[in-house]
Membrane integrity-associated transporter subunit PqiC
Amino acid sequence: MSLIGAALLLTGCSSAPSSNSYYLLNSYSAAGKTSQGQIELNQGVEPSEKTSVGLTVQLAEYLNSPYLVMQINQHKLSYASFHMWAEPLADETLKALQLDLNAISKTLKFVPEAEALQANELAQLSIEIDYFYVTAQSKVVLSGRYQYNNKLEMQGKAKGQQAIEQTFTFEEPLEADGYSQSVTQMRSLLLKLAKQIAVNIER
C-alpha cells in the first residue's frame, strides 16, 4: 500500500459520507476461524482438570480512544475520523486473548481476573499492550509485555512455569487497503501472541 493509499485509509475519500463505521475485533467469524483448529487439539481434556489463571489486559492510554489509530511517522499518531470500535478495544482484546488461550492451552483455563480472585486461584497472567495499530508503512503492529505468576506451582499444586516476564513484538504487512483488512490482521496478531504465551508458560 502506497503512502497515498495510507492517507486514503486514514481520512477516507472526500466524497465519502460523513457517517461512522464500526468495527469488531472479536467478531463471530474471526473467533471461529482463529480458534477452531486449535480446539480440536484439546479434545478430551476436562476443563475441571485445568488450573485457572486470572487474565488482565491493559492498553496504553492512547489506545483507549473509541477511534482506530494509525501511526503516520516515527513520532506521530492519528485517530481515524469516522472509524470506531464497536466496543472498547480493551474489552475486545481481553475477549479475543481469553478465547485463543483457552483454545490452545492444554493445562490452563484462562478467566477474567475477578473470576479467578473469587475462586481463590493464585495464578495470574497480566498483559500490557503498548502498540496496536496500522502504520503508514503498510504494517499492522502489536507490541508490549506480559507477566505470568503461578503461586500454585510454589505450593506443589500445579505444573508449568512458576513465573515468567516476556516482551513481544509482532508485525504483518497489510495485505489490502481498508480498515476492515487492518482489523482482520490485528485479530490474527492476537492469536500469534496467544500461541507464544501458551508455549512459554506451559513448558
The first strand starts at residue 21 and ends at 23. The two ends are 40 Å apart (CA to CA).
